[in-house]
């Protein structure tokens, strides 16, 4: 493709993007494609000769948009969103154009130094103390795996990275049942194993019970296991539950354990000072992860891991062969040494665009609106016949169900999602099938939220 043709098609795609975003409310939120439909529409063999862009783009318009669930739709209330503010999208276009591999300072000076500055901007925005540092990961799963690796190696005095785990006492990680499944997977990948992830009982508000945690750690020591670290939940995926951070960190300090806070979704809300009591004590943790791509408006992927002291994580993950040396610059920050992947995208640019385009106060107002509208929706659904609120709003997430039971609730959810005007998802809570309602799409309005409530009301009375 020549430069002039690239220019033409870039403009065409920019126009298509603007039209797509402007017309999202007219589309069904969830894809209506049937399994195998797109696969069968694609040729079974690759082309031997070039295909004109006109044909390629026409095929894109014919096959792709209607077979996508539209995550930027303003009535997407299902999973925690993958938000993409328009300013963030523009930054990603520039990142795509430069196509840099930002693994080292020398391969990406601007990307590396902007990342350092954006981490500090976000530290200030969330009210964390000076001195904390951090790194932009692809997702909270990677950040949690990095933290679990650090827990493992710290407990083993860094013997695991050389000799493996054979012959060592089993490292134990502690978390509550409300913690995200990424913690389970981190224990698998880190070689710790599912059986050594200890799920701690919760109290009546579904936060981890500090007394049960202390008892489990002491029992494990007596059994010859090796307690290594604690993953603390703030705003769990299922119902938004949060652990009592300060009380858990007190136990961690008594036992000498590393602590990692998973605030992937709810961490964005901490830019609002009035919401910070929910994570009182967070500044005492060793590691914190939150995803600006979930609720702050950064294009996916963009997950920020804060570290009180990065030394342990660097000692656990740094590997510097000769070909990755930067001669004469031993003190240069190479963020690939802070993470598991070597390859890194220029993720800081979208944060720079986003924060400057909307300002912290503009971002705070969106989050405050989402929380207020979630509470309004909860009360409206509470008043609908045949439905009941199962879990009250936590931040902007609540759950509800049919009084008639699980089968009726599952059938209602399918009717809602098949209708197309909104999109919700399910979870199980205390053994019960419930529907989650989470407000957080970047450009949704109060009218969008109440449209979803109206759909629930219209369909809730069907058999």
Write up what this structure looks like.
- A seven-stranded mixed beta sheet has the order 1-7-6-5-4-2-3, with helices on both faces. The chain has a four-stranded antiparallel beta sheet with strand order 8-9-11-10.
- The protein has 463 residues and is of the alpha/beta class.
- It has helices at 3-22, 37-41, 53-63, 86-98, 109-125, 140-155, 160-163, 181-189, 210-222, 245-255, 292-295, 311-317, 348-382, 406-419, 446-460, and strands at 133-137, 171-176, 197-200, 226-233, 258-262, 287-290, 303-307, 387-394, 397-402, 425-429, 432-438.
- Helix content is 42%, strand content 14%.
- It has three domains: 3-76, dopa decarboxylase, N-terminal domain, CATH 1.20.1340.10; 101-345, Aspartate Aminotransferase, domain 2 (3-Layer(aba) Sandwich); 360-460, Alpha-Beta Complex (Aspartate Aminotransferase, domain 1), CATH 3.90.1150.
- The longest helix is centred in the last third of the chain and has 35 residues, at 348-382.
- The protein contains 15 helices and eleven strands.
């Amino acid at each position: 493709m020549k430069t002039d043709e690239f220019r033409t098609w870039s403009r065409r795609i920019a126009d298509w993007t603007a039209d797509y975003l402007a017309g999202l409310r007219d589309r069904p939120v969830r894809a209506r494609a049937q399994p195998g439909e797109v696969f069968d529409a694609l040729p079974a063999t690759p082309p031997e000769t070039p295909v004109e862009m006109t044909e390629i783009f026409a095929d894109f318009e014919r096959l792709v948009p209607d077979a996508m669930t539209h995550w930027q739709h303003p009535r997407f209330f299902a999973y925690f969103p993958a938000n993409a503010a328009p300013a963030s999208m523009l930054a990603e276009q520039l990142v795509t154009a430069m196509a840099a591999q930002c693994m080292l300072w020398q391969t990406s000076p601007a990307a590396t130094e902007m990342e350092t500055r954006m981490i500090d901007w976000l530290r200030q925005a969330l009210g964390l103390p000076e001195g904390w540092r951090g790194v932009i990961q692809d997702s909270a799963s990677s950040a949690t795996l990095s933290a679990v690796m650090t827990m493992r190696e710290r407990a083993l005095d860094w013997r695991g990275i050389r000799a493996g785990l054979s012959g060592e006492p089993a490292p134990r990680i502690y978390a509550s049942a409300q913690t995200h499944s990424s913690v389970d997977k981190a224990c698998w990948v880190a070689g710790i194993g599912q059986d050594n992830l200890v799920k701690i009982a919760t109290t009546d508000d579904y936060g981890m019970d500090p007394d049960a945690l202390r008892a489990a750690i002491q029992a494990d020591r007596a059994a010859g296991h090796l307690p290594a670290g604690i993953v603390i939940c703030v705003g769990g995926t299922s119902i938004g539950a949060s652990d009592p951070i300060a009380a858990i960190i007190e136990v961690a300090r008594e036992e000498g354990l590393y602590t990692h806070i998973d605030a992937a979704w709810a961490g964005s809300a901490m830019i609002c000072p009035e919401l910070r009591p929910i994570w009182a004590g967070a500044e005492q943790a060793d590691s914190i992860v939150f995803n600006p791509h979930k609720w702050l408006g950064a294009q996916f992927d963009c997950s920020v891991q804060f570290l009180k002291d990065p030394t342990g994580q660097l000692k656990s993950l740094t590997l510097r062969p000769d070909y990755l040396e930067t001669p004469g610059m031993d003190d240069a920050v190479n963020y690939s040494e802070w993470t598991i992947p070597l390859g890194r995208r220029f993720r800081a640019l979208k944060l720079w665009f986003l924060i400057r385009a909307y300002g912290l106060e503009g971002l705070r107002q969106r989050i405050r609106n989402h929380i207020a509208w979630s509470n309004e929706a909860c009360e409206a659904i509470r008043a609908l016949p045949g439905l009941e609120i199962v879990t009250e709003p936590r931040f902007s997430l609540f759950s509800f169900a049919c009084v008639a039971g699980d089968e009726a609730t599952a059938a209602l959810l399918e009717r809602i999602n098949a209708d197309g005007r909104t999109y919700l998802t399910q979870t199980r809570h205390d053994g019960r099938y419930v529907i989650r309602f989470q407000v957080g799409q970047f450009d949704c309005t109060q009218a969008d939220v109440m449209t979803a409530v109206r759909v629930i009301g219209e369909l809730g009375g069907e058999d």
